[in-house]
Queue: 4 jobs
Job 1
Amino acid sequence: MSSDEDLDFYRIWSEAERTLPLFSKGWWLDAVAPGRWGVSVVKKEDNIVASMPYVRGGTVLRVITGPRILGQPPFTQNLGPWISASAKTTSRGLSRQKFLMETLIDQLPSYSYFRQNWHYDQTNWLPFFWRGFRQTTRYTYVIDDLSDIAATLSRFDHSKRKDIRKARQIVTVSWDLSAEDFFQNHESTLGEQGKRISYDFKTFERIYNAAYLRKKGRTLGAYDAMGNLHAALFIVFDDMSAYNLVSTIDPRFRSSGAASLLVQEAITLSAKLGFAKFDFEGSMIEGVENSFRKFGASQFQYHSLVHVPSRLIRLALASRDMTRL
């Protein structure tokens, strides 16, 4: 399903489907991968009961590129299959899921390499295993109940609460930084650490504009009395959850506690807006995981799937893995 007409149908449907994760929405895919995405779907009576977007292009081993690679686009925490609740709860639920997933796989375009991270709600990947896909378990951290914000904040680790109290004496929180200000700050703070920013401004601006147009995102920053931006945060939303999409910290002010204050402000806003969850997004980096956990977040497993029909790429990957032994 990749004709212009079909994609337009998916865009309209995805905007209205409340249970579809943010990163599978048509408007999101238009922002992160314009002209490069398609979607497998299963319809019943002109309504979609299963879907799986995919994005053409990407890089394997930093040198293998091209449209026959189906990869994970930038800023996109998860893709993978979505199956309607009605399809999951039939008396033949698992067999129905098997049929739907096989149908989604069969609609994928021909590819040499496939990689996707799935949403943690999708736990059944057996039909993909039977088709030769490999799986790795990864983790994200989620505060999964924002209904009592006072209780949520009370579960912050003592060190986080101390940082927040300190930050309130140093910085003021300002909402809705421009795309230019956010990007420039992130680029410059990374440069001070000898690092390069991993995304381009045009992509970031498309995401920023699309999210603000739909009231699905906010930026916030922490400024001191001299106008220095200590930290900034970009959060995005779907109908179920808020997501910690991008954060930036000026290394000169790392000890001010501003980053922790911004996370608390983002969580508090998310609760006020009625979101059930706050997703810190996945990280396998030990220091990042430790920080997320100290906000009282719970660990959620999700699947990362890979399929490599190309013998050349399989050999290159095997060679890489051997050098790591």
Job 2
Amino acid sequence: MKESRTPFASMLRVVPPAEVIIKCSMLYHYTTPDALIGIIKNSCLWATSVFYLNDAHELIHGIEIARRQLERLRASSSAQNEKSRVDWLLGDIRNVGTARSKAAFVCSFSPERDLLSQWRAYCRGGGFSIGFPSDQLAQAVAAQGFSLNECIYNESDQERLIGETIETVVMPWIGSAPLPLNDDGERFKVSGRFTWELVRAASRLKNASFSEEREFRVVSQPERGYEAEKLHFRSRGGLVIPYTTIELPNSSDFWREVRIVVGPTPHPEESKASVYDLVRRYRGHAVGIELTRTPFREW
């Protein structure tokens, strides 16, 4: 079986996944006034189902990359057993990338604290960017079954990430000894894990035209347990949107490092003053607050 696996691995130039290193000290989340109140009052963030994001089509792009790679894997194999297993997976992932499949939950950040494109995308009519120390944020989300990773904009790097997922999850099963035809247990186990890992990996892919945002995403891990009390719903554009909560550290050491930028607004000083009072009320002390350098426009 080894002969059929080697060409695929070398074709993808698969390398072991590196340890995540976040080089920026602060990560900023762009949000509305109502959402900012909730973040500060409850010390938590919302992570939305990836199938309901504005750019969910990029998730489909990742699924298509996986489909093409599996089809190349099938073509490179001379063993019917391996071809059959790839066919099974191709069938099993048919609905991956739709709202019918298992969702990953994501929350977006940027190291850019004052970016016009972000104000336009998330803060029309007024908003804020709230910055968190990246190392403490990464530790907090990891303890709750999430990972914090930089999004990938380069196409070759996107191919490699999906290839690593296939190499890690799928290849050991593809090349293993044949199973009885009526023994589907292992197939469903592999398919379930592959679906989870594929959605999680595809959630990090972004179109190159958005690269100035340098987006980071908190993404739920496949192993994250289901907690009904943390699954919530909100409405937007006629849809019911599922989301879950991520608790932020409650410590003063964490919140003293938080920074807030008041976005474009016709009332900047009033907005700055009210946010100062909001943080003092619910966090017990002041945080750094500044005004955007972007002039207000009626977008």
Job 3
Amino acid sequence: MRSPVGQAVVLCVVAVVALATTAGAAVPPYVDSVIHPTEAEFQQSIAVYQQAVAASNQDADAYYWLGVAYWQASSLNRNGTISYGADYLQRAIAALERAVTLNPKKIGAWLILAEAYYTAGDLDKSFDARDRLNVLSTDLSQYTGAMPPPAPRGGPTVVVPPAPQTLVPANPAFRASDFVYAGDPDTKKLYPLSCQLPPMRHLVIFLDKWDAVSRGYTLAQQCP
């Protein structure tokens, strides 16, 4: 386990890195609903992120989406859907670690890292990543529309009811639907948890949609 001194050093390093600016143009999100049957097709799908990190090693989003891509492919390899990607788990971890080094508040990267470390058998790092997630989940600066407007000072009291809002991460690179899915065991349909779910007699929750696909579920192309 890491010593208190070691933890202090790591936190100091993270604090310094957090002050760095992210360079490079914005990269598009990785389309993780597509299964690439060959490694050549997969490599083509991540070329934009590889080019971005080659152009700048300060692009947290490029490292994040590269990590997402490698994590998805490694999951597909483990459940037997694709034949390549046996070594992609470590590539995913390396890319995501770089992403959180550049942006320590990147919740999506920490979420995958917690699962990836556990899959790799590194329980200490997995628990550390989960602890980081717990801290970030209580940081309201990560969200927009999380707090009602402050009450005015002085004069008559005016109550302004807040509009109905959902906590939405300020960073659009984090999407809960990337990670949590609801399955209907009767119809074998799979929906992102962010959808308005149809009526179900039973509900199964999956943290990895490819695990659900390997069990016979079909990913819905759009929310009901």
Job 4
Amino acid sequence: MLIEIRHRTSYRYGGPARYSIQSLRLTPPSFEAQKVLSWTVTAPGMETGLRFSDCFGNAVVLAAVSGEHDGIEIEARGVIETFDSTGVARGLPEPSPLHMFIRHTSITKPSPELIDLSRSCQKRNALETLHEMMRAVSEAIRYEIGTTHEHTTAAEALKSGQGVCQDHAHVLITAARIAGIPARYVNGYFLSGTLAPSEAHHAWAEAWVPGLGWTGFDPANRMCPTERYVRLACGLDAASAAPIRGTQRGGENEALDVEVEVQQQSAQQ
């Protein structure tokens, strides 16, 4: 499948900023489940930005802007060819050891409710356990936009019983780690093709399954990733996998606007 993506992020400041720097994880990788046919990222400071791969294998650009400015516009766009790999993510760089992904973060810290959920889902093997966790998380957290925020923890989302794809992913990751299964957060894009609630910029979990490797689980859609998914970056949680993280001097009262367009492209184009 050919998927065309346009992801625009605009920051506007109430007053001029004197300096800003953005950490951009906006370049999708090519691996067994997807091939990048074309991709460009435009942002102030990109030409002289520092480029490197982080400890999770994500391509990162540090783009800085000096001098007064009242806002920043960042756009990523391109075409990705995707393939259905039954959720298995083979062919990605893996610079970090598996035990790193059992470590909890402030967002994925276990609570009594999370421990109970994890224990209730444990089956004969990791694959069966993870499928049961995906089902349980989907049932425990109703998809509801605007009920959580970027700092909502897995424990808070499970207790409230509502949230979005980020919350589904955090709860599944936490449950898997409690069970001793390495798990990580993945962000990317999703082509829904339906009228059901969804977010074009999407998030899901990946867990390590013996004999398969890293395998995706998406409780928000209650399925493993298919050719409708485009993988962007991964991390221990949403904060470490964020497409854009930045800071500035000055520029108070920041206003953020994000537009994401994901559509299928015909092979003739």
